[in-house]
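Below sits the subject:

***
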Amino acid sequence: MNRIILHIDFNSYFATVEQQANPRLRGKPIGVTGGDRSERTVIGAASIEAKKFGVKTGMALWQARQLCPQIIFVTGDSDKYLETTKRFLNILKDYSPYIEVFSIDEVFLEVSKGLEVPKVPKGISTFDTFDTFPTFDTSTKWVIEMAHNIKRRIKSEIGEWMTVSVGISYNKLMAKLASNLQKPDGLIIIPDQRAAIEILDRIELDEICGIGSRIKARLFNLGVTNFKQLRQVPLESLLASFKSYGLTLYNMSRGIDERLVLPFYEKEEVKSIGHRLTISQDTNKPEEIKQILLKLTELVARRLRAKNLVGKTVSCWIRYAFASAEDAHHFEGGGMQTTILATDDGLEIFQAAWKIFYQIWDGQPIRMIGVSISNLRPLLPETLSLLPETKLTETINKTLDLVNDKYGEFTLQRGILLQSASIKRMPNPFLSDRRFKL
């Protein structure tokens, strides 16, 4: 209960970054798309103005147009968002070394007493309306001033159009909930467990991080429709229904969360690496699908080699084309996985994925295909092969990586891919494969 954690969440991040970069887009409803296509993609982020019309992340473009005919679609720029996040993290490092990157646009910042936290920079004015906010005690008024100073620095050092919502509480769960209670540009404090329970009893089950639609439905089946009812369910019953996650639900309903704020530079490396592609036109042509799958496995292999990793478990999955627009929310398809010898070679990953594809594909046109590799481990010197053909492959891959790192993805590629569709690697939105040097 003595911990003080801030959850800082950018408002409509991708869309707001685009509006900051292009003043002509400010104040207008925009939707950031996931690629350079106009029909076969979805809304990656909606601006605050577009959200007022009901436009949401993940919505098909035609649906967004129906709700907001004047919406402006903007192609997403991954490098721009990553650079903005770097600048954001460089601001936060002045307040605490305990920074956990939850996703590309939100972080946890722990500033609890006893931690080696820098003092609040000089020149911060007193928060005039401090008394309108609940607080831990009078000695923690500085955390309110800190939050406002962070907001001001974001506008000053990143852009005047950028806003964040800040939640302050005694644990991560409640800090994230607090930041969601007032958007955009909010600042809410949940000071203690008593206040947390009061707020929990006023919100829906799925308004808290960790309870999605499936968990909510299962709770409804048990007759639990709110947090007050959830607190009345014995722990033994929750464990019987949800196994180990039952304890998490038991604690959630009471505002309990003992998870530490884990600095991003201490996080574990990724557990899997994958890519997927929504194809520009539905296809059931094996040769076209083979080219796409090979290109995806080459991207996966490049990332493995960049991290000096090899993997053993290959997964492949597909989604079939929609019969009609009304079927757009019913994704049909399937996936499987197989185990191979540990590798970082794209062709070997492809051969395993292609076998899976032919096992799960029924010949219908597909609209999406994906591949990933897991069961990863470092490529150690003793695992290197001395076989001539293997050493040749390693030399070729190293040369390909050097050229493509310098001149761009697929500058050098296999001849079979020369006429294939362009595929651009997009960053993981949760930054699981990125590290920042602050």
User: Anything to note?
Assistant: The domain at 268-417 is CATH 3.30.1490.100 (Dna Ligase; domain 1). Confidence is low (pLDDT under 50) at residues 117-135.
